[in-house]
Design goal:
- This protein is mostly beta strands and about 110 residues long.
- The protein has 1 helix and 8 strands, in the order βββββαβββ.
- The strands form 2 sheets. Strands 4-8-6-7-5 form a 5-stranded antiparallel sheet, with helices on one face.
- A hairpin with a 4-residue loop joins β1 and β2.
- The longest helix has 10 residues.
- The chain is globular, with a radius of gyration of 13 Å.
C-alpha cells in the first residue's frame, strides 16, 4: 500500500499501490492520501485538537495554507470550506487528523490545492 482513499459516508477504505493515472482528484465525501499522509493536503479532514495559533476569515483552502506558511507559529492548518474559516495550528493535537466533512487540512506546505 502506497496510497489510500476513504469513502466517508459508506465507511469504505481502499488501499492502493499508486495514485492512478490522473493523480488525486478532490471528491466530496472522500478523503485520500499517501501511505504516511505527509506531503498531501487532505479533504474532509481537520485537526480539531491541535493548539491554535490564529484564525483567518474569508480565505479559501489555498489561502489558508498560504497563511500557515507565513505564520511562524503554524505547522498545521484546517479550513472550514462553507464558512471560509481558516484555523492555524502549532501541532496536529493528540487526535491528529480526524474525519471532518466540509474541511480541508494539511501540514504547513502540503501539496494538492
Amino acid at each position: 500500500c502506497n496510497y489510500w482513499d476513504h469513502e466517508i459516508g459508506n465507511k469504505i477504505c481502499r488501499l492502493r499501490s499508486s495514485e492512478g493515472d490522473g493523480g488525486p482528484i478532490p471528491t466530496p465525501n472522500y478523503a485520500a492520501g499517501a501511505q504516511d499522509c505527509t506531503g498531501l493536503c487532505l479533504t474532509n479532514y481537520g485537526y480539531p485538537s491541535g493548539p491554535m495559533c490564529d484564525t483567518v476569515y474569508g480565505v479559501d483552502s489555498k489561502g489558508c495554507r498560504e497563511a500557515c506558511e507565513r505564520d511562524a507559529c503554524c505547522n498545521y492548518w484546517d479550513h472550514e470550506v462553507q464558512n471560509s474559516i481558516c484555523r492555524l495550528r502549532s501541532e496536529a493535537g493528540g487526535d491528529g487528523a480526524v474525519v471532518l466533512p466540509g474541511f480541508d487540512a494539511g501540514i504547513q506546505d502540503c501539496l494538492g490545492l
